[in-house]
Every structure is written in C-alpha cells, then in structure tokens.
Backbone:
C-alpha cells in the first residue's frame, strides 16, 4: 500500500474511467485527533481512504491510499445505497468556452427540474452529467462524529488505518504549531 497526498487520491478517482454514478462514500471525524476520514468505494475501481484537515479556510492537507482494488461482497454493505447526503467530485474547467458550455447545460438541467416533479437523486445525476463529473453518489457523512459504517470500514482496513494515521500525524506535526497566537 502506497500512501500519497490526498489530491493524488482524488486524481485517481477522477481518472478511473469507472461509471461515475456508482461511487459511494462514508465520512466523518477521525477517531483520534483533528481532521476527517473518508472512504470512497466503487465496485470496479476499488476503495480509497483519505485523512484530511483544513489547515485554514483556503488550504486542506491530508494523505490517502487505495485500500482495496474492488468492492467485494464483504465490503459492499459497508457503503450506503442511500446516504445522509450526496457527494460529487468535480474537475476544473480548462477555459472560458468550456465553462460557458457547462454553465448552459447546467442551466437547462435546473430549468427542467424546476418545471417537473423530481427526486434529489435524479437531480444530482442530471447535474453531475451536465458538468461531466467523474464521480458522484450517495454519502453517509457525520460532521460531529463517526458513522457506524466508518468504524466497520476502519476495522476492515485496520493495517491501512494504522499506516495512514502515522503518515497523517507526520503531516499535521509539520503544519501545526501548538500554542496560542
């Protein structure tokens, strides 16, 4: 298992060429210390784990790794089919023309959903398709604690958890100075 910067993990997710709507995620507070843990899972692309914290409102630091090459029958129930929310991973646009084209597609999707009965899931799928999102789906996330599923995933990937925790603590130690300013 190779520990890398959290942005590299997101790049892997975006470049996986997996069905964008089949991703699922679980996230919440770290068990020990500052920051958040998140697991992204896809039946064919595997399972990725990231540990992050917001150094300031404009900068996030963290580490991550691929912890499984695919989601098997034992891991599948640990990811939500329907979550407490939905998530999407988005790539930046290359230029103004691409931004304008995506904005026009998005405007059409929103107008269509405003005029017709819809569900949050259907609207998210249409929005993510309009902006060419490489990954999206249901997510269970707790901003104040850890979802039960997260504890189960942590136990399942215990060795990866220990290694990522150690590497993440090194990142925090380099970035965070203790004390008052």
Residues:
């Amino acid at each position: 298992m190779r520990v890398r910067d959290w942005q590299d993990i997101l790049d892997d997710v975006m470049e996986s060429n997996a069905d964008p709507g089949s991703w699922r995620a679980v996230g919440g507070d770290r068990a020990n210390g500052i920051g958040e843990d998140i697991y992204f899972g896809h039946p064919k692309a595997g399972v990725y784990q990231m540990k992050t914290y917001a150094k300031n409102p404009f900068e996030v630091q963290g580490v991550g790794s691929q912890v499984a090459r695919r989601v098997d029958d034992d891991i599948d129930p640990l990811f939500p089919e329907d979550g407490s929310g939905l998530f999407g991973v988005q790539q930046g646009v290359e230029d103004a023309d691409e931004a304008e084209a995506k904005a026009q597609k998005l405007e059409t999707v929103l107008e269509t959903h405003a005029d017709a009965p819809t569900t949050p899931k259907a609207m998210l799928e249409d929005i993510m398709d309009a902006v060419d999102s490489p990954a999206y789906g249901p997510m269970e996330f707790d901003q104040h604690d850890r979802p039960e599923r997260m504890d189960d995933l942590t136990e399942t990937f215990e060795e990866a958890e220990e290694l990522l925790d150690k590497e993440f603590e090194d990142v925090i130690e380099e970035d965070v100075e203790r004390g008052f300013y």
About this structure: The mean pLDDT is 89. The helical segments are 6-14, 96-115, 120-130, 148-156, 158-175.
